[in-house]
Specification:
This protein has six helices and six strands. The chain is an alpha+beta fold. Helix 1 crosses helix 6.
């Protein structure tokens, strides 16, 4: 990795640390599924606003946004009714590709996928796979700092939807 990328990651980590200090005051109802690595954060805003806020936060952090997939529209096009469900795909290649260099199979879990879904009660949830779980899944033991950074980034991004 070039010195430039190391400096960029270091600056980004410092920025994230400061953001997380501010965001830690917001109550995040995150639960990590012990068996499946699923993390869920309840949104305080409707689906459409959650999408806008998360995409804006991703852009503000300089993270590359790859795609927005409206799964409920795809289902409707196939004649299937599905509650609102939108998959956002984004990442920071200098960070994410480090996991793939440890184990090429980790490419199954990168870039980051964040699902916004609405439950039967109308509550909106941001859902993603816990990065520690991903590390264990791919037996990656040499990227703890990077996995912790990825966790901080997604927690920071989802903090954009936990309050009105």
């Amino acid at each position: 990795m070039s010195r430039y990328n190391v400096l960029r990651i270091g600056k980004f980590a410092t920025f994230l640390f400061l953001v997380l200090l501010l965001a830690s005051a917001a109550p995040i109802d995150a639960r990590i599924g012990r068996d499946n690595g699923i993390v869920r954060v309840k949104s305080a805003v409707p689906m459409s606003e959650a999408v806008v806020r998360i995409k804006a936060d991703i852009a503000a952090k300089g993270i590359k946004f790859f795609d927005e997939i409206d799964q409920s529209k795809l289902a409707a096009d196939a004649g299937i009714k599905l509650r609102p469900s939108i998959l956002l795909v984004f990442g920071n290649p200098p960070l994410g590709t480090q996991f793939i260099t440890s184990n090429p199979n980790a490419g199954l879990d990168w870039p980051v996928r964040l699902l916004l879904t609405q439950d039967d009660n109308g509550d909106v949830w941001a859902v993603w796979t816990d990065f520690g779980w991903i590390a264990r899944r791919h037996n990656i033991r040499d990227r703890d700092v990077q996995f912790n950074m990825a966790t901080m980034v997604v927690k920071s991004i989802t903090s954009a939807i936990v309050s009105k």
